Amino acid sequence: MKATVLNDIGDIRLIDVPDPVIRDPTDAIVRVRLAAVCGSDLWPYRGREEFRPGDRMGHEWIGTVEETGPEVTRLRHGDLVLAPFAFADGVCAACRGGLPTSCRRGGFWGGAHDGGQAEALRVPFADATLLPVRAAVDDALLGRLLPLTDVMATGHHAVVLAGVPRGGSVVVIGDGAVGLCAVLAARRAGAERILAVGRQPDRAELARHFGATAVFDGRAADTAGRIIEQTGGGAAHVAECVGGQSALDLAMAVTRPGGTIGSVGVPNGVDRVDLYRLFRSNIALRAGVAPARAYLDVLAADVLAGALDPSPVLTAAFPLTDIADAYRAMDRRRTVKAVVRPDGS
Amino acid sequence: MKATVLNDIGDIRLIDVPDPVIRDPTDAIVRVRLAAVCGSDLWPYRGREEFRPGDRMGHEWIGTVEETGPEVTRLRHGDLVLAPFAFADGVCAACRGGLPTSCRRGGFWGGAHDGGQAEALRVPFADATLLPVRAAVDDALLGRLLPLTDVMATGHHAVVLAGVPRGGSVVVIGDGAVGLCAVLAARRAGAERILAVGRQPDRAELARHFGATAVFDGRAADTAGRIIEQTGGGAAHVAECVGGQSALDLAMAVTRPGGTIGSVGVPNGVDRVDLYRLFRSNIALRAGVAPARAYLDVLAADVLAGALDPSPVLTAAFPLTDIADAYRAMDRRRTVKAVVRPDGS
Fold it and tell me: Does B164 score more than 90 pLDDT?
């Protein structure tokens, strides 16, 4: 079958690999219907995160169950399944405590594991990892569900970590897919004021569509001052959805005393966390990789009920054979998020 | 009158200064009964924190009201008063929100303001800042109340920030007065297991007296591993009561995924906060200067009821005239906490 690997910095390739097979009795083999390129895929692609040449790529995907191991009981051939970006055993203390991303037997798609930017994958702990969706799913619904596998779950986590209350205000930093989804998650959580900070003018419209009540230019020198002014001294809830130094610095600057920062961007190049600033103003810093599996059921239910639609973050589509073009489009910020279809449609 | 100033690094002096006078109608003049030297006083004393030569010193003190401005209504001449380490106006959004340490019109004792290691002080916003104690107070009770002005309130804050639940477990890092008080605060909060980490063998006994169920040597190489083992994978609640790099690193190492670090030591020399560690394991870092005034009433009520006694942290006493000796004893770790008495008793 075909699978995407990172061969070198900036060098994404679709290569032939052996078909995945059941290894453990809890495995399933899943054929990929739709996958996406994530902003975090760009870190190793740009050489800003370590990788081994040949690492499999892709952790956002939806597929159809093709085969199940003898201990898989909740899934059957032909099921459409949503996968979170991490697999987990579902039975350990971390999983039972709602933190499947801290499961010691779990892991992330890609690298030495199978990746989602491929024709198929072997899924460990399939019963615990996958959410079957037993509804009529057309292409449009597939697009609404795909973001739940990572960016929508992560945006939701930012809002959870920041403790955004119904009727409250939140500052969302970042206009990547996660930041935009955090805006949507904040609206879903009932926030009345959603102040979004981005760098790309064309994404402001999408932020507003998702519920942002004001959009600020993250590159303008006075952005922090304007947000502090408009929030009467800083925001009580700030969602940091980038993971870079300037985004964190802005989050620290606009959080009011006693406020909370929910930080969900994968930290990259962050070498300064001003502990004294946190200390002086009693600011809580709650960083975390989203326990996406723990959110999948409720978010999928909202999508199926027509109450949630993050699909506008999917702004370009490619056949899997053009995966290198999909990366290039993301890298050059020509698209918010690119999807790839193994069937080439 | 006599007041303590920091003349140079390691050079503490008791000098003659003008008597304090009422400047604003909300001021009070308070004569000091008992004051203490704080671990944080040692930072400038050791040259590890900026100061201006001649800065007044001392932010832990109890006194008697001598004079009140025309707008002071809750205090009268002769009242015994507890002061938190920071004054605040009591009416702003921060004060009303329970964060008097973020009051913009407030400040900390010492520096350009009057300090507590003196015969008397001018107290701004006296009604809001001071807690009158209208009970018969002998010397022993004075010693039980004094730690509430800073170290006991700060230890309590660590337990609040770390979210220690009744019946839960907590790791307390630091065997200074704040760490020891955090142990006491954890017991007061109903923690069942209190794992204390210190460096001084003679303080382990005091930690146990305050409620520690186990005491670890912070300098031993395997301390983190032993704590992780004894907590079944790390602690859900960690109180960091030092403010130094190694204490923070230890806190990060022993916190379990999804856990919370309450950090109350004044950050000093902390230049690495591993954001990726927080992110990867969904650890909340809640640092904060204690809003001591917000805790004073309830802690003082416990002391007066005989339910709380932090006075064992006061391990040495000096007349105010020997303030330089008190600093030296603290600096050389010959005492946990030194008190000074302006009346020389």
Answer: yes
- Strands, sheet with B55-56, edge to edge from the N-terminal-most edge strand: B11-16, B2-8, B55-56
Residue B229 maps to which CATH number? 3.40.50.720
B287 at the A interface (CB within 8 A)?
yes
Residues forming beta bridges with residue B214, ordered by sequence position: B195
Closest CA to B286 of B158, B199, B174, B178: B158
DSSP A146: G
Which residues span the domain enclosing A221?
A: 151-287
Q: Which residues of A touch B279 (CB under 8 A)?
A: 243, 263-264, 266-267, 287-289
Reported confidence tier of residue A269, pLDDT bands at 50, 70, 90 = confident
In A74-103, the residues whose Cβ lies within 8 Å of chain B are 93-94, 97-99, 101-102
| Co-location of A19 and A142 in the same domain | yes
CATH of the domain at A119: 3.90.180.10
Confidence class for position B345, pLDDT limits 50, 70, 90: low
Query: DSSP for A64-120?
Result: EEEEE-TT--S--TT-EEE--SEE--S-SHHHHTT-GGG-TT-EESSBTS--SSBSE
- Residues B53 and B165 sit within 8 Å (Cβ to Cβ): no
Rounded to a whole number of angstroms, the distance from the CA of A49 to the nearest CA of chain B is 13
Report the pLDDT value the prediction gives residue A251, as an integer from 0 to 100.
98
Q: Are A241 and A158 in contact, with CB atoms under 8 Å apart?
A: yes
Binary contact (B99, A258; C-beta < 8 A): yes
Q: How many domains does chain B have?
A: 2
C-alpha dihedral over A321, A323, A325, A329, to 10 degrees?
150
Contacts of residue A337, Cβ cutoff 8 Å, sequence gap at least 6 = A36, A37, A38, A147, A151, A177, A313, A314, A315, A316, A330
Q: What is the pLDDT of residues A197-236, one digit of tens each?
A: 999 888 999 999 999 999 999 999 999 999 999 999 999 9
